[in-house]
Amino acid sequence: MKEWTEDFGGKKIIREGEADFRPLPFHCCSLSFLPFEDPVCTNDGIIYDITNIIPFLKKFHVDPVTGTPMTPKDLFPLHFHKNDSGKYFCPVTYKEFTDHSHIVAIRTSGHVFSYDAVEELCFKPKNLKCLLTDTPFTRKDVVPIQDPTNLTRRNLANFHHVRHELKAVEEKEDTLANIQMPESTKKIIRELNKRIESKREEKIEHTTTYSAVDAASAGFTSTSFTASTLKFDPRLIIMRPEKKGYARIHTNLGDINIELHCDLAPKTCENWIGLAEKGYYTDVKFHRLVPGFMIQGGDPTGTGRGGDSLWGKPFQDEFTPRLQHCARGTISMANKGKDTNTSQFFIAFDAHMDLNSKHTLFARVVGGQEVLAKMEDVDTDEQERPLKDITIEKVTVFVNPYKEMQEEAVKPQAVKDKEAEEARTAKRKEQAIGQWYSNPAAVQPKATKAGVGKYMKTAAPALEAPKEAAPRPTPAIRATPPPAKKAKYGDFSG
After folding, report:
1. Is 344 labeled as catalytic in the residue annotation?
2. Which of 359, 361, 364, 400 is flagged as catalytic?
3. Does 335 qualify as catalytic in the annotation?
4. Is residue 43 annotated as part of the catalytic site, yes or no?
5. Residue 346 appears among annotated catalytic residues
6. Is-catalytic flag, 288?
């Protein structure tokens, strides 16, 4: 029995507490056990959704996991980052977070990274600054979110609110509980009620309102706030082309060629190309210049307070980890805060990673770096305005993917079918050319006769003997004339 139970056996001894071990995933709220939307964190690395923890603290005044006294001041907001697939990942190493990742957060900035990135780029070089915002921090400010070597602290069975059955909000009473009807009917009614409720909430969130006050902007690329209330529908239809756009900005200092990331920032590029094609940027001055940082323009008033989008109202930001302010010549939208993009844009003179997730990057300079250098050399006044006018004379759009998509959509079906047939014919020809190399068995020679040499081509007919050429007349031999006597030149003096 000792061999069975201890040495080799198939019997597994379950120790106390192991049977109830259920670790909470890192992306879930420790109070509701559901994926969070607005995460906040304690100094111990326990994550809550702010909509769940605040009512709980008002009622019980203790940490739901540890049971120790806690107030809202003990929480700090977290900033998780997602990739194009919607998965949480480290914004530095670009590795997706899993249940086995070592994840930490910087308390002073709230950004979440993999521990490897913080160790290699902060601890070892002794550069204790946030990798995204350069916010200083200490080693005590590095909060462990998930440690794969210590998952016991995320065991649901040990949570204080689970053991004591504490609930901040009482569950709604089931109105169908006391009604006699089949359970299948109750299930259908409950599902319909959920759908009605979700549609009601979606309708409420359909229009988003942002208010701005008349105050100096804290952003790098904005000169002031305008007192206004901005309303727009965030579900505007977005055309999503699969190719880049190309344009040329003609200035009084020279031309700048740009490539627009229509495939990565479709709404922003559609706005910029649309404004450029209708002449919105013609004779518009660059009103702000900061050498070593950027040059800003796109405001027809030249004050930094004007400008409208292609649709007449601000539109939302478009952030993606594939576009970073990591080089000279990146072109981004200037704004007054979140989702307030209009017509103003700026061209960066250097890499500025701190602008990521703050300003939508939608293009880059691919030609005319010498013109960018001329712009940077222009002197400015105390208000960062160029002392010499730098003007956009016009903008020429060479490739407009949005117009191509519209033309493709209205193209007659007969033309589309003809183009598709031509493409299929061309593809068949290409396949036929390379068929012998890729599949020689498919190309079999035809037999011309039976027996040996049946695949050899029939011998060519014998050539006829050449006809005897007709005799040619022998040319008459002429007598050779006697050589002429050489003339002797005398003296020319006489």
Report:
1. no
2. 359
3. yes
4. no
5. yes
6. yes
Look up residue 445 and give its two tokens.
């020679």
* Cross-strand partners of 396: 248
Asked if 296 is an active-site residue, the reply is: yes
- Per-residue DSSP letter, 356: T
Per-residue tokens: 97 = 């977070």
Q: What mean pLDDT do residues 299-316 have? A: 91
Report how far residue 407's alpha carbon sits from residue 412's, in angstroms, rounded to the nearest whole number.
Answer: 10
Which of 43 and 17 is assigned the larger pLDDT? 43
Which position among 75, 78, 264, 355 bears the catalytic label?
355
Determine phi and psi for 295, rounding to 5 degrees: -125, 135
Please identify which of the residues 107, 161, 288, 364 carries the catalytic annotation.
Answer: 288
What pairs with residue 241 in β-bridges? none
Distance of CA 167 to the CA centre of its chain: 41
Neighbours of 176 (CB within 10 A): 15
The yes-or-no answer on residue 232 being catalytic is: no
Report the helix count and the strand count for the chain, using DSSP H and E: 10, 17
H-assigned helices in 61-151: 115-118
Phi, psi of 276 (to 5 degrees): -65, -40
Cα 400 to Cα 247: distance, rounded to the nearest angstrom? 9
pLDDT tens digits, 232-270: 444 445 678 888 999 999 999 999 999 999 999 999 999
Q: How far is CA 335 from CA 286, 287, 318, 458, 487, in A?
A: 15, 15, 12, 81, 103
